[in-house]
Amino acid sequence: MIEQALHSISQFYPEIVIILTLCVIIVADLIIKSDKPVTGWIMLGGLVISGITILFQAGQNGSFFYNMVVVDPFAVFFKLLLVLAGIFVVLFSLQSKELDSYYTRKGEYYMLLSGMMLGMMLMVSSTNLLMIYIAFEVTSISSYVLVGFTKKETDSAEASTKYIIYGAVSSGIMLYGISILIGFTGATDLAAINDALQNRADIPMILNISILMILVGMGFKIAVVPFHFWAPDVYEGAPITITAILAVASKTAALGLLIRFFSVSFIDSNGLTATGIWQTIEGIHWTTLLGGMAALAMIVGNLTALRQDNIKRMLAYSSIAHAGYLLMGVVILAQEGLASIMLYLFIYLFMNLGAFYVAMLFSNSIQTESIEKYKGLGFRAPLESIAMTIFLVSLTGIPPTGGFVAKLYIFSAAISGGWIWLVTIAGITTVISLFYYIRVVKNMFFYKPESNEGIIQFDLPSKTILLILLVPILLFGIYFSPILEFAKNSVQIFGM
């Protein structure tokens, strides 16, 4: 038992680093009384060290802590994405003027952010229903508090309240679905659940109901229709740094969890091939359900975004639409589909964080999030406005940006999987998305600034971070083979 525990701990270094970082932040916040963001730099260092330890796990494939947690290429890929998103969000936070009036509570902020990172890393590597739920709640509780961190603002308190209410309800429904699934199969391990289901001659309706209930919780985290109602208000009311991590990292973690849960639990191993289409266990119709949700997310997200004036609300509905595009890869039931999702997520991280970062820079300078107030910014802040244009063009999926490559691969994977109607909806809604993205560009470049509005100056660190986010979008639009190969090599999921 001791040897098993020590061996498991040796594979748990990335999470241990995050836990130690959290503890150091708490102690540093108590001891160091300074206006400088010491705790922010501590968290940044912890994330970098954690990322390095994740790289050492590349190529491994094993189960630890009595099959509660795994280290496999799939988990390594997603954890690297989460750490990368976390590093960018910490850098954003160090520059955010929105958080300046709460400098005495910065230690709490980074402590909660560390807890959220820990929960998300566990979400993508858990293979036991109990551990999945614990990771889910660790992520949720931290994010509830972070959304309402700027509590002096009315919309922040409102956003936090709505997030808690919606989150508690969806979490409760998910937990009830998990209890039904455990009671029906007599197992908590995902692979054991798969074995139990394949040994049964019939699948009753109650099992499909339990899967639907579990999907409520996962769909809430992904912000996919019809579990998206919380996203626009929460995104608008939360600090923009937290909005960014919810839109990118939280969605990435939940999608990784959803893929592992459905792929390991409900795929017929007798129909599993290296390159062909996988078969679901007979009587469980989750692919049709996810396909319908993907279509609704693309339609509702893009159509509703047309009416938004607040940049964060617009990006919220945009992220709902992108959740639909990502779910297309899940329903394909082939390694090609999963690889296309992972490629999409990698590029989505840069283009979405980039859009939020420019929105934060503009908010810091002109104290507004209104798209109407962006008029003339192309002349006042040319570099930032051009960068925002490229990020939005990439989110639309126009060449030669990384967003085009991401959508091309996920659309082609869906076509090869026979989901022609879903690709048709995706294509139409992509055209619709062009209208609200280009509206931002039109306001920045097609209007002259007022005579009393001068050039907006940004410091060198801001421009450096902006270029770090911008260059991959342009590079991956032309040369994307290494990322695609990395995604294909990371498709392997433990238990499959």
Automatic annotation (TrEMBL):
NADH:quinone oxidoreductase/Mrp antiporter transmembrane domain span: 126-433
Localization, UniProt: Cell membrane; Endomembrane system; Membrane
Biological function: NDH-1 shuttles electrons from NADH, via FMN and iron-sulfur (Fe-S) centers, to quinones in the respiratory chain. The immediate electron acceptor for the enzyme in this species is believed to be ubiquinone. Couples the redox reaction to proton translocation (for every two electrons transferred, four hydrogen ions are translocated across the cytoplasmic membrane), and thus conserves the redox energy in a proton gradient.
Quaternary structure annotation from Swiss-Prot or TrEMBL: NDH-1 is composed of 14 different subunits. Subunits NuoA, H, J, K, L, M, N constitute the membrane sector of the complex.
Keyword Phosphoprotein set for record: no
Keyword Cell division found: no
One of the Pfam families matching this protein, by short name: Proton_antipo_M
EC number(s) recorded for this UniProt protein: 7.1.1.-
UniProt-recorded name of the protein: NADH-quinone oxidoreductase subunit N
TM ranges: 12-31, 38-56, 76-95, 107-124, 130-151, 163-185, 205-230, 242-263, 283-303, 315-335, 341-362, 383-406, 418-438, 465-484
InterPro entries to which the protein is assigned, alphabetical: NADH-Q_OxRdtase_suN/2, ND/Mrp_TM
Domain of life: Bacteria
Catalyzed reactions per annotation: a quinone + NADH + 5 H(+)(in) = a quinol + NAD(+) + 4 H(+)(out)
Membrane protein topology class: Multi-pass membrane protein
Key words, A-Z: Cell membrane, Membrane, NAD, Quinone, Translocase, Transmembrane, Transmembrane helix, Transport, Ubiquinone
Enzyme class, UniProt record, top EC level: translocase
Similarity comment text for this entry: Belongs to the complex I subunit 2 family.
Organism: Rhodohalobacter sulfatireducens
